[in-house]
């Protein structure tokens, strides 16, 4: 092996890559990763992150340019590279019908690790990942977080010098995410491993030594997080108004010409303005409303949005979603008539109790979040509320209808969108819309009206005849939401709606959800993404089928603060604090 | 152990564990073969036996009764009497009987007068095969009766040429003896091509192939890691089939076992080559399964000579059968089971199998992706 001391762990020189079916994926990529340290690869969906990682792993060859790893060329030294590089694909590359131990055994065989060496490496990895007591369990029966750790353990068996991870934390709960980062930090510190990982989570990128921002196949910027922060310095503010709700304030701000980004956070609206602009917030509300503004330190996400919006005409199509759900709209007072009522509900699967004496209410026009680690009972609760699963005990009422007696009537009044976007991939956008409106029993004239509405509202015109499987992820999500809204439901269920979606698409999605809620649609959402919990009016955090905490985001943060020394500023901290205070989580 | 040995062992162990734990693999590898063997061993028969037939005798006479008795005694017919032709025709139309034998009222009189005494036979030609068989059997009954009738009258039948037929190799004419050996080719296609195509496509679908080829494993090892386990499974299926054929269904094995196993190896390699090729073309299980069934399983059933005689197919279809590996193997199987080690049949067919196996495997190795594109 010829490794010069100066060799980079990974170097891309003017690399381009195009695919026959989808066109150019990467253009003139120059990249140099010094040995050691963690580099985050961020960017919107379809930016080319996975392609870049696959090129680095030698799974794809560049059309033009050169890729080197520790001085070895990816084209000529393919075989040798495989023993230097560890690559974990998006779905972890595990054999689900093999046990934890058998998966490790297989990868040890594939990497040709000597028997004598094996036991000590297995023991190290088991300790690092806390998987020791699950050795006999089939990988398919592990929770998302444990699968991810096992996938990582298999990749680490060979002690790779360059570790490539493709979206390692998508669909994984905050606790598991934190563990993963601890493992990666250990690797870098103890073995001097170089890590390149792609992520949709900006707070993860924030912890890395370097960040590479990719958009439409080109690198927009690569630097240390601090350099990104500098781009957005003096642009970030926390705004609040004593008499206006944060959501109403956020909507007003989103329409402002100088505002690049605005999200509800920490009991205020975090706002990023165009660099150099000094908007006069007092003009926001022509009346006597006062808006309190407080400058805050910029974060990576601010720079990310700033850089990306510069390349786009507008961040999100800010047009209002015009929407008139049956019976909604009129009642938007503070009375909050309960639309969803869950009372003392149990659910058993054999001898396993997935949901324990659960009770809560959701008012009309409320955005209600259901949070929890994998296996906490969120999905079961969701399915019961959709009438897909009967409760073992207790009563469930949706839109005033008892789900035990009138599940199908209740279903006709709710819309459902799942993280898998339940679309028919082989059908075009138009056919999907037609199918879903037929399935909800809309008659022909109404159907045409609603399809026109959906196409207009969600900007689907350009894709009307495309198969939905070929749409970019953000558009798939738009279409899925449109399909769930064809029958103008008064309640909308969203199951992990933004899993794996980049910050841009996520903002656009929430802008629409906020507008729907403002018009009286009740929204129930599950999410792993703790920052999104801030967008909810009220939250319920579940753990092992029980309620761990409930209340507004501010109340929950306050409660988690109790007894802790460090201040709790983000929902993520609050969640981890609460779960830890409640004891070890089973999975 | 060398790196190669380690990797191959790891891949093979993984494959066996997966088959063992996946109900759908187990169904294709074990349940389907046993089901097919029982179905063809016990259920399906190409012989016409106890065919329901209608007898219409307008006027009874000793001669007519004697003639009808021939049908009652015969193992091939289950006769029913009808009072008139009209009723029998209705029964034929309702598919209650497959044919009508009609003796007119003047049958006995004309026979006595040595005038031609015609017998009317009406057959349901919808199932042409059965109709042909029934027609032959009726002829046989009539022939036999004619001889007996002539002898009874103190004369020998006026037949200058007599046929003495002897049947070789399957003297009992049991269709089971011919179906069950051919079925082995179908079963091995199931494991070799269908199961293999499915499991490789599954690795693409679940993203494990991506992880696999990012390790130091070479393409050759990945292919070998699929080939060897499914070769062993396929040979297991063959031994099971031979065992059931010989011990359960009493099919005679005239030739030698080692010839069967050797030919089976050649055929299985061809089937595995096809399975791997299919999985390289189709990276999702559904498409791979469809292609495998259309390209390998159905031809093995229909175009291999397993049920339908290749010589009676139209010339164009006969040409196509030369591309079906199962055709060569079925010829070997039927010969070795029923006739013995007839090298004139075995060698050319084995050679064809060898060529196909080599071609498919080489193609699979050549086309196998070394990377993700």
What distinguishing features does this structure have?
heterodimer; A: 587 residues; alpha/beta; 6-stranded mixed sheet; 19 helices; 25% strand; disordered N terminus; B: 373 residues; abc type-2 transporter like fold; 67% helix; elongated
Detailed description of the structure:
The complex is a heterodimer of chains A (587) and B (373). Chain A has 587 residues and is α/β, with parallel strands linked by helices. In chain A, 33% of the residues lie in helices and 25% in strands. In chain A, α16 (503-518) links the parallel β21 and β22. Chain A is globular, with a radius of gyration of 25 Å. Chain A starts with 9 loop residues before the first strand and ends in a 6-residue tail after the last helix. With 373 residues, chain B is an alpha/beta fold. Chain B folds into two domains: 2-44 and 174-367; 51-152, abc type-2 transporter like fold, CATH 3.40.1710.10. Helix content of chain B is 67%, strand content 6%. The two termini of chain B are 32 Å apart. The interface between A and B is medium-sized, with 38 and 28 residues.
